[in-house]
């Protein structure tokens, strides 16, 4: 191979990766925004390195989102929301360095797994992607919602209430089918709805800051060592099942345009818990609970390129930015891209491989700094995180309205926490609300109001069945726990 | 200082306007000498994100515009609020030609659908460059070969038609076609062009309506077939695809692309843009590029552009009311 060609790929890939990791570790900047910020800098580059840089930025961003998720309870990207659960818990137990190591290792494995799927099975997977209809997406949304049953914590009722709140937030904005403006009060800022990431940043980070301000700092445990601990062999073995689940779910989800990494991460988290040997540890700092979602969202970053490269159909917002990059450089993604611009396609493969591998190196270089930062005295840290959140949110659209949304969500979260309502169902509601509503109504418009359409789609039926299993399983567990409690009481 | 500079450039402009008349008699006009412009830097604002429709339009345009207007153009993306932010920024700018806006139907739609601080009426349309090609497409291995097949199917039983977004011109066009053909078709709106394309390719939908640029990859790969165009005339590169109008349904959609600016622009600025637009549309190199993406040159100078935009807004408003999107 031409050495110059290789060096170009190498440089582009590292540059994209570093920017992706750094950018997405700022709260409020989603993977797609980080890529959009990079896009103008690629205008002057030749097509191949430009595209490689963007693709690797995507990889870095999907990984980088987990850093603030673990360290400051703020998902850097949508798809890191599931990582917050056990990652931040591990951090609170003084095991941040371990959690970051697991997330890094799982991210690398997930990325490599997704890449292998992309390189070997583009053809068959592209055909699979074509099978997804509005009914399929509705089924996927319901499957995602069913995860709430196991994310609710102590009370299923409070969990369901929080989920409904999230679904209500998701109805704000332009109606996905009729185009009528809903709950916008004439404000153009609300036309596009409320960005799920802002709600997450508010609920998780701002709430955490407000709560922590009320806790005396003496009661806080000393922070973790700043040396990142990559998993050793026993740990690798322990989390391998969760990673396998993450890789599978992520690789398949990447194919579903519109679903994106966040749904994949939550489903992977839930499945990892169901198949885990110690499901009771989930939510209390389980290593598997970090491994599964991180493997999933990194796998998505590669397989989301399949519908993009083969049909020109972006599988996620981030893939849409990559599509923009391709178009600006006069490359037309689609069946013919593999023949006409095979150098770009090969470049993406090689670049992604380099990026996945270098993540380990760059991660171990960046992470100690991040851990050191969050080990600073609490008052400084709180002020710093506030500044980071406000500036990060503001950067997205230079809009103080968005900052207002984050702060409102934070206030809401404070009261939710006070009254014991879990956040995750609300977050899932915001993420899935649009997906479920629009595909449900779209299906019914297609069928002329006939509900039979949902049962003509075998993939959707499979999703419904799994969702039913999850919900029934959770109910049975809850009933059993109640019965056991009663038995213990009477004994 | 600014005044002095404006005065000098105005002077230069007059000289320039008189110049060619003299020069034309003496020698053939020199190949494009860039017209001087009163500002060294001109900011072109778009509401679209980097890589999306208007952004690509502006960046391509700027590359060739610099041959005809002597200044440095900067493209800035002012996203958010469905265009309302870009709108109010440009509407509040000094009307001296140093800041302009990439006008598309979006800025009218946002003005009609919500109550932004500034509406399309707060901007002055300067000059129009293009009309996008809006097409009806279906999957190649599907049962429909012509628009008639499609309409017949919708008449016999029930059609399944798709458009990218609920509040889009494409949806309005599909609804209008349904009414004009007096057929029974569900017009299903989607979360964007990609979502729509999947459902056309897998046969969930009989057809989709979209910009030709969005479907180019599938078109070139032979996966989709064009049935008709909504433009007022046949589009470049596809002379065999009929217009909807010539097939007997009186539905025409002109999705425009042009430049607007703050109200009260001086006439000499307007003239520079009018002339530059005309020249750039005839630039052989640029022409090749825009014809390749099926953009139709549609030069509307500033004195007619205002009325065009006003009529477009009135038409869109009544369509949105008819389909119940706004009251």
Distance between the termini of chain A: 75 Å
Order of helices and strands of chain A: HHHHHHHHHEEHHHHHHHHHHHH
How much is the radius of gyration of chain A in Å? 22 Å
The major pleated sheet of chain B works out as: 6 strands, mixed
CA-CA gap between termini of chain B: 50 Å
Number of helices of chain A: 21
The CATH architecture of the largest domain in chain B is 3-Layer(aba) Sandwich
State the largest interface.
Answer: A-B, 56 and 53 residues
In short:
The complex is a heterodimer of chains A (491) and B (327). Chain A is mainly alpha-helical. Chain A has helices at residues 3-24, 31-38, 47-64, 66-72, 81-92, 96-129, 134-146, 148-151, 156-170, 196-213, 233-254, 260-275, 287-303, 305-311, 317-328, 337-340, 342-374, 378-397, 400-418, 424-447, 458-490; strands at 173-174, 181-182.
Structure characterization notes:
The complex is a heterodimer of chains A (491) and B (327). Chain A is built from 21 helices and two strands. Chain A starts with a helix and ends with a helix. Helix content of chain A is 73%, strand content 1%. In chain B, the strands form two sheets. A six-stranded mixed sheet of chain B has the order 2-1-3-10-4-11. Chain B has a five-stranded mixed sheet with strand order 7-6-8-5-9, with helices on both faces. In chain B, helix 6 (169-181) links the parallel strand 6 (159-163) and strand 7 (185-189). Chain B has two domains: 39-131 and 255-322, D-Maltodextrin-Binding Protein, domain 2; 134-229, Periplasmic binding protein-like II (D-Maltodextrin-Binding Protein, domain 2, 3-Layer(aba) Sandwich), CATH 3.40.190.10. By secondary structure, chain B is of the alpha/beta class. Mean pLDDT of chain B is 85; it is low at 1-29. Classes of the chains: A mainly alpha (491), B alpha/beta (327). Chains A and B meet through helix 15 and helix 20 of A and helix 2, strand 7, helix 7 and helix 8 of B.
